[in-house]
Every structure is written in structure tokens, then in C-alpha cells.
Amino acid sequence: MKYLKLRAWDKINERIVKVVAVSERIYGDCEEPYITVCELNEDASTRDVKVRYLFRGDYTLLQCTEVKSLNPEIELYEGDIVKCFNDALSVVVHKQYAFGLETKGIGFTPFYEIYGQCEVVGNFYENKDLL
Questions:
Q1: DSSP state, residue 130
Q2: What residues make up the domain containing 43?
Q3: Are 93 and 122 in the same domain?
Q4: How many domains is the chain partitioned into structurally?
């Protein structure tokens, strides 16, 4: 069985968070789907982990593409801004039933055409000024 790797754009705190679980179960008096997110404390020495819930409308899910960047330890996620195509900046998107890059002036390019040739420079939500 293959597990999806997800992260989310937390619209309330305006930052990317790691998604631990996605649920459609009822939480308390709320009957809407929610996700469970996990955040590490800014001070890594304390190793505190904060677990909280985000409800529909408070987040945007971002799926891992399982495509590696130039640094093989970094996987690309939807919304990542990457540098490739002669230093042109592109956004990782899911379109036409595939993951790929949306580049201004070029359009959509599926990953199989550029596999492993991109460097992550930011993400669409936290670095809109890059585009």
C-alpha cells in the first residue's frame, strides 16, 4: 500500500504545516472534515511537538509528487517554486492528470520531461514575490 505524503497551507497562521492525518469523522460538535497537523517548536532543543486540528476552509492540502529536486533529499510538493529551464521560475502543479510545472511563457510541462533538474527556491504561499 502506498501512503500519500501531504502538507498543508494553514490559512489562519499563514504557514506550511506537516499533515499527520486527514479525517472525515465528527470532531466534537463539528460534523465537517478536518486534518490533524503536527508542528515542531521553533526551538529544536526543546523537541516540543504541537498537534492541532484544521477544518475545511482553513487549509489547502498540498500533495508530495515523489519527484526529487537537484538535492535528492528534497521532494517536490504542489505549490513549490522551483528554478529550472535556464533559471526560469515555475510552480509545481497537478494538471492534466499529472504533476508538472507551470511556467510563465512556457505553460505546463509534465515531470517526465524534466525529472531531477529543478531546485526548490520557495513555495507559492510563502514566497509569492518570487513569481
A1: G
A2: 6-59
A3: yes
A4: 2
Do 34 and 20 touch, CB atoms closer than 8 A?
A: no
Pair 29, 72 in one domain? no
What is the residue type of 110? P
d(Cα 94, Cα 109) in Å, to the nearest integer?
Answer: 11
| pLDDT tens by residue, 46-60 | 666 777 888 878 899
* Distance between CA atoms of residues 103 and 82, nearest Å: 10
Residue with cell string 512556457:
106
Q: List, for residues 19-49, the tens digit of each pLDDT value.
A: 888 876 665 666 667 788 877 655 556 666 7
| Pick from 84, 12, 92: nearest CA to 53 | 12
Domain CATH for 88 = 2.30.30.290
The burial of 41, by beta-carbon neighbours within 10 Å (0-12 exposed, 13-18 middle, 19 or more buried), is given as exposed
